[in-house]
Amino acid sequence: MQGAIYPSLKDRTVLVTGGGSGIGEAIVRRFVDQGARVGFIDIDAKASRQLVESLASASVHFEHADLRDIAALRRAVAGVREAFGPITILINNAARDDRHAIEDVTPEFWDERIAVNLKHQFFAAQAVAPDMRQAGGGAIVNMGSVSWVVGQGNMPCYTTAKSAVQGLTRALARDLGPNNIRVNSVLPGWIMTQRQLDNWLTPEGEAELMQRQCIKRKLMPDDIARIVLFFAADDSGACTNQNYIADGGWV
User: What is the pLDDT of residues 179-218, one digit of tens each?
Assistant: First the structure.
């Protein structure tokens, strides 16, 4: 279904982390539809190459990297820049919401969860900020989660990392604002990606969600992608330092 068209996104170079599937895939597809040049990074090479083949567009480019490895992240950013030119839109989407019990968390697991859900967001922003300064501005959208807002259990490392995205967003917005670089975060609710359907959604969970959400339907990846487009486009030029909840009224 066609959504809004944002002329300011046409021919812009966009970087999406975790763009090979789920919400990230929907974001990549939507930016391509806007006429942007889209580079995305993902650890899942098979899914990512399938996405590129399905789009059959010269304006999409995939870089394979494990974002927990900051050197690999920096190389991937350079690869996108080499393919499409300076990056002026960054969507920090990559994350993993694996469930885990408090007693099972080791120091190594803690560090790995922070790396996969938070650390790379800062270093991706650091890597593209010079491009944005040179271009006279840019937009960064960090993906948060309502899981920490609602106090969801059974994944303390994930919810800790996602709560920190709000602080990171506000810090980057303050420091990069003088360069006309806007930084916002989007906090999705329970979005029905294939991963969620395969691993976490149960009839009981769906019933509880429908009871708690104001909007009585499942939220899909494209619901979030459309919001991300707005915060990336010049239409949201007055918006920065914000954390926008998109959860169907769950919170």
Answer: 999 999 999 988 878 776 777 668 887 888 888 889 998 8
Please tell me the distance from the alpha carbon of residue 115 to that of residue 98, in angstroms, as a whole number.
Answer: 14
For 106-147, the three-class secondary structure string (H helix, E strand, C coil) is CHHHHHHHHHHHHHHHHHHHHHHHHHHHHHCCEEEEEECCCC
Spell 167-184 as b/e; 16+ CB within 10 A means b.
ebbbebbeebeeeebbbb
CA–CA separation, 195 and 98 (whole Å)? 10
Length of the chain: 251
Amino acid at 141: V
Q: What is the spatial distance between Cα 157 and Cα 102, in angstroms, rounded to a whole number?
A: 9
Q: What are phi and psi of 115, to 5 degrees?
A: -65, -40
Gap between the Cα atoms of 189 and 211, Å rounded? 14
Q: Which domains does the chain show, CATH number per domain?
A: 7-191+220-246 (3.40.50.720)
Our answer to whether residue 244 is catalytic in this structure is: no
pLDDT value of residue 53 = 97
**What is the 3-class SS of 59-76, one letter each residue?**
CEEEEECCCCCHHHHHHH
Distance CA 219, CA 206 (A): 11
CA gap 139, 87 in Å, rounded: 10
The angle, 0 to 180 degrees and rounded to 10, between the axes of the packed helices 120-135 and 156-176 is 20
Total-model pTM: 0.95
What span, in angstroms and rounded, lies between the C-alpha atoms of 161 and 251?
A: 19
Helix (H, G, I), strand (E, B) or coil at 235: helix
Catalytic residue among 62, 84, 158, 190: 158
240: left (phi over 0), alpha (psi -120 to 50) or beta: beta
